[in-house]
Write a structure and sequence with these properties.
It is built from four helices and four strands; from the N terminus they run H-E-H-E-E-H-E-H. By secondary structure, the chain is an alpha+beta fold. It has a single domain (12-107), classed as Alpha-Beta Plaits (2-Layer Sandwich). Strands 2-3-1-4 form a four-stranded antiparallel beta sheet, with helices on one face.
Length: 112
């Protein structure tokens, strides 16, 4: 519901599918932020990403792939190829709150 209108309804899994792909990849790598940024910008399968410093020489990367792709193997091979330490590599599904925000943002863009 948004502004008194039903924008989406159904089981949580179907709502996640409708809102997009429903997943994000979290990776912590001991790698230079600039090198990570350059690499992620060159991958067309990445919709968006954010890189934030973690402790020590690690950077925490939040990566949203396009069309439900699982880019964990790609990121694993990148770390292995470059000799970067990979401390975390997980795939997390968007929460229902995330789905709500994405659906209402899409509706606002269409109205505006």
């Amino acid at each position: 519901m948004h502004r008194g209108r039903v924008l989406a309804e159904g089981p949580p899994d179907k709502l996640r599918e409708r809102a997009d792909t429903g997943s994000m990849i979290v990776a912590e790598l001991a790698a230079p932020a600039d090198a990570l940024r350059d690499y992620f910008e060159a991958i067309p399968e990445i919709e968006s990403f954010d890189i934030a410093p973690a402790d020590g020489q690690f950077n925490r990367c939040m990566i949203v792939p396009r069309a439900g792709l699982d880019l964990r193997p790609v990121i694993f091979h990148l770390a292995k190829e470059r000799g970067w330490t990979l401390r975390e590599l997980t795939r997390s599904r968007f929460s229902l709150e995330d789905v709500y925000v994405r659906v209402t943002e899409t509706q606002a863009e269409e109205e505006g």
